[in-house]
Amino acid sequence: MLVASILKLFYWLGARFDLSLLLQAGLMVIVQLVLLRVALQNRPLASAASNIHQPFAGSREGDTHVKRPFEFWQWRQAKPYWMFLAYFSATLLVLQILFGRLDSYVALQGYVALGIEATLPLPQILSNQRNRSCKGFRLSVLANWLLGDAMKMSFFFLAESTIPWSFKLCGIFQACCDSYLGVQYLMFGEGPVDSIDGLAKELKNLS
């Protein structure tokens, strides 16, 4: 989300879309930076015991460990996160200076930025489908996403200001993904009760 929001800031330089969307992207950058700083300051120290706190630690795809190239966004030190964001922003600035007047580059930049944002629900969809369960995915989160999609699509298609088609198409895709999450919730619910939870309920009934 942070990468997508930074891209949208540079996208505005070429597309000059509605100012409210620019302000939203800027606010998201600030919020995500604050959250990143808090997360890095409060994460447990790297050790074998705290390995479970590492994102995707021990996750598997079949018999193959899932490992990101160069341990992207799983670094143990805080510095690589800020260095990546600095180099990423600097690269976008250079590209903006070189190609910012090309309509094709501006359009590509917009679709990449909004495409990243639109595909954010896909990992949750795949996880639900693989586990045949929506356990751990709160219904309130889904409701907020669907409400946000409805408000966003209304603005994209009813606003009097010019809204690029990249916003509309990627917004439609994201709304479809969120709607399918709703379908999954209806199909799977929270899935079967874990054995530990079931044992706890049995003990409670016996007491």
From TrEMBL:
Record GO cellular component, one term: trans-Golgi network
Keyword match Nucleotide-binding: no
TM regions (residue ranges): 20-40, 81-99, 105-127
Localisation per UniProt entry: Membrane
Membrane topology: Multi-pass membrane protein
One Pfam short name: PQ-loop
Keywords: Membrane, Transmembrane, Transmembrane helix
Primary subcellular site in the record, as a coarse category: membrane
Keyword S-adenosyl-L-methionine: no
Record's protein name: PQ loop repeat protein
Organism of provenance: Aureobasidium pullulans
